[in-house]
């Protein structure tokens, strides 16, 4: 797609130097920008607006409804943390469910655990178009989508979990790798969803979800989301990671279980430092622990009594 005509025709309003600006009412008054080298694909799928562009410094970038989902340069931080925090906290994570996850980065991380317990990976993604475009433009993320241990279901993740209410299908770890609440992922940020997650978990099972807002943009939203999770799970924690391509550079996860004896903030299993270095670029057992340590004001607001 020609950059100049895209600039004039699209809702994205690239500036005169062809910079993409991530703007949203949920973080009014600030924006995150990336210089665009080439528009690779733009489509309105059945569920959302999807843009893929080649940036000057962050590689290819996937944008859904105007919000950056991943960039080739820093995606490993998010994918490794949302996957390894629950997987390394669980003693025997055999069956894993991924809700959303269309770029297939979480699946790539789960494949690293086939030797230490993970046997089956089911991913429920609403929009097949995201998977197809990721296969084409984010090949390093989507490379294991056809792996024999991976089952991909094209469906609404909320509906899928609702359907499990009447079945005996349970998971050890459920990872909600969804987009933000504005759009098809709206139902994931509600108490009803946490109840569906709890129902689909094995005893000692662990869930994790990306928490949409971060401590800088809207800490009250996070506090509210944590309190919703606490209505369902007895053991709920907030962890964070550095993500330069998410507005404010920080992103968090809500991690929860009904197993009161699991500390969540330290791994119950670990690899040798050599194996860790072979498998991971961001995650380590030290990073696991440190990701639960928050700046003092955020800790007081999210974990304190006020
Ligand atoms: N890392 C990203 C972030 O937080 O910015 C999210 C990654 S992206 C893979 C999120 C995926 O969730 C998208 O592919 C989107 O289509 C999917 N999704 C949104 N709503 C969904 C729903 N109701 N059921 C299943 N998948 C959904």
Automatic annotation (TrEMBL):
This is Piso0_005719 protein. One of its GO terms (molecular function) is spermidine synthase activity. The keyword Endoplasmic reticulum does not apply. PANTHER family: SPERMIDINE SYNTHASE, SPERMIDINE/SPERMINE SYNTHASE. CDD domains: AdoMet_MTases (cd02440). The keyword Protease does not apply. It comes from the Eukaryota. Belongs to the spermidine/spermine synthase family. Transmembrane segments: none annotated.
């Amino acid at each position: 797609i020609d950059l100049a005509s895209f600039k004039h025709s699209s809702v994205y309003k690239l500036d005169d130097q062809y910079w993409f600006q991530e703007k949203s009412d949920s973080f009014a008054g600030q924006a995150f920008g990336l210089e665009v080298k080439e528009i690779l694909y733009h489509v309105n799928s059945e569920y959302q607006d999807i843009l893929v562009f080649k940036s000057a410094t962050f590689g290819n970038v996937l944008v859904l409804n105007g919000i950056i989902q991943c960039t080739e340069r820093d995606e490993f931080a998010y994918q490794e943390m949302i996957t390894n925090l629950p997987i390394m906290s669980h003693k025997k994570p055999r069956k894993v469910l991924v809700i959303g996850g269309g770029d297939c980065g979480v699946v790539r991380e789960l494949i690293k655990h086939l030797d230490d317990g993970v046997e089956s990976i089911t991913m429920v993604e609403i929009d097949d178009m995201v998977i197809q475009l990721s296969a084409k433009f984010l090949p390093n993320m989507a490379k294991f989508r056809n792996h024999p241990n991976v089952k991909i279901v094209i469906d609404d993740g909320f509906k899928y979990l609702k359907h499990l209410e009447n079945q005996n299908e349970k998971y050890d770890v459920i990872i909600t790798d969804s987009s933000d609440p504005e759009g098809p992922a709206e139902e994931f940020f509600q108490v009803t969803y946490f109840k569906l997650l709890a129902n689909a978990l094995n005893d000692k099972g662990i869930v994790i979800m990306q928490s949409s807002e971060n401590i800088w943009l809207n800490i009250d939203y996070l506090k509210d989301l944590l309190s919703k999770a606490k209505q369902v799970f007895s053991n709920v924690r907030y962890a964070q990671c550095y993500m330069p391509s998410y507005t404010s550079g920080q992103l968090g996860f809500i991690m929860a279980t009904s197993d009161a004896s699991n500390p969540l903030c330290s791994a119950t299993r670990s690899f040798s430092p050599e194996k860790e270095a072979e498998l991971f670029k961001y995650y380590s057992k030290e990073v696991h622990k440190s990701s639960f340590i928050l700046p003092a004001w955020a800790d007081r607001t999210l974990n304190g009594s006020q």
